[in-house]
Amino acid sequence: MNGMKGRDYIIILLVEEICTSHKASRRHIQNKQKKMVLHKLVLLLQWALSEDTKWMKFQRDFENFKTACIPWEMKIKEIESHFGSSVASYFIFLRWMYGMNMILFGLTFGLVMVPEALMGKPYGSLPRKTVPRAEEATAMNFATLWDFSGFAQYSVLFYGYYNNQRTIGWLKFRMPLSYFLVGVGTIGYSFMIVIRTMARNANDDGGGDDTSFNFSWKMFTSWDYLIGNPETADNKFASITTSFKEAIVEEQESRKEENIHLTRFLRVLANFLALCTLAGSGYLIFFVVRRSQKFALEGLENYGWWERNEVNMVMSLLGMFCPTLFDVISSLENYHPRIALRWQLGRIFALFLGNLYTFIIALMDEINLKLEEEKIVKYNMTIWEASLYNGTIPENSTAPPIEVDPADVPRGPCWETMVGQEFVRLTVSDTMTTYVTILIGDFLRAVFVRFFNYCWCWDLEYGFPSYSEFDISGNVLGLIFNQGMIWMGSFYAPCLPAINVFRLHTSMYLQCWAVMCCNVPQERVFKASRSNNFYMAMLLFILFLSTLPAVYTIVSIPPSFDCGPFSGKTRMFEVISETLEHDFPSWFGKVFGYASNPGLILPFILLMVYV
């Protein structure tokens, strides 16, 4: 069998046996010999077919096993078969972001939170790790914990809890260095994985031309005759039906004739209305932010829950209602559904971006207020320490002063923890708004239409309110900007990647359920583009914009003097020079200094961009 496959060898044996049988029959051999030869042929044929069937079955089972190992693959395929590739592309994007956030969670949890919890000083050992005496009575209240204050504020969830010791534990773990490198590595990994995915999508062009004889190919080659499961057959039938709808829309759009002057007027009007909506949203955010600064100066404890969370709630409500308004406006433009989706994404992108940067500007104002307050606190702490020393040490005595409970020690404002709390609150409020929208806007609406349609004065399914369609643009932009908040806030709140993993995990199940149970396919089902790079391009852009505020705070703003791993330094990045000075030879520090010269870095960056 030199280089010969087993199946070919079996065929040769069968041919030889047939020839032998034929020759034997021509010589008039006994019937008993003929029966033996035929029996051997049957056995060989059965063995060959059984071995081939087993191998094919093994291959099919192995392919099914690989498909089952892909998270949520069957759910996404079922959604695609009923709602089209455009809706399925959102869930594929959601699954991709879930995988990326699992890596970010592993970095922050394994290299920052767990080492501090296991090897760092315990709760109550330092003022930064202790709830102040005035807040102890309410530190465990649900309202306080829901606001991420009290014991939640003085824990590994936020920046201010971490100590500035160079090494902690018996492993001599370098916590400040690890904290800084994880923050930088999170951004670096995000850039790498987004750009790599865009490059892979650009190379994956789908292969072949699927526009020639499109309907004939779909009609005669779409069905898979190996399907043996009734549920799979139903999904395949729905998928073929949806693909025909997509193809019909593409054909209608290619043959559509329109009044060009009326179309231009309606598109200009739609853009004007969209700009007015964006301007009104920006002014409302600006107005609410100014009110929140006034509340902060007068003391938030004097106001209720709405005043304390007004900025977060207004931003969440704008993110919920403005996309619906943009969707109504886009109906005037009469674009192809795929082009209309991109315009919708662009407008919601501008809305979210304006809201996000308005929120960041408000945070910068609060940081400046905290820095001014810090100067006053430093002066008061100096007076407190002097009075404590003079009051506890007798004259002409060398005894040390008495120890003070960390809960009674005055402390300065930790602006880093304040920034982390704001991003955590905004993320949680946005998550709750999304879930409430699904339950009320989709589920209760579908229940009302389903059960009251029989006794209503008009057809609720085809009239108002009808079943809702899946909002692709709003959900995609919600994912992207939520990820932008994670990138900006995770340096000051290491718990943010964990919160985002939980949000994405629950969103996958909740939205899959809502789509299949509460939504209906769009009236104009359209085929998604072959490349998912449009989503990735927006994600890359928001990653760049999210990096700018984080880099600015790290490079330009001095860290708080009595909280966080970088306290006592003038800038956070000084932890790198400190490590080079103490843990590496002097020549390595000189080489690193030359390599980090802007005169070398800028040409290298330009070369990378050019390549």
From TrEMBL:
Pfam families: TMC. GO terms for molecular function: mechanosensitive monoatomic ion channel activity; voltage-gated calcium channel activity. Keywords: Membrane, Transmembrane, Transmembrane helix. Residues 414-529 form the TMC domain. It is a multi-pass membrane protein. The chain crosses the membrane at residues 96-118, 139-162, 177-195, 265-289, 344-364, 534-555, 591-610. It is found in: Membrane. Belongs to the TMC family. This is Transmembrane channel-like protein.
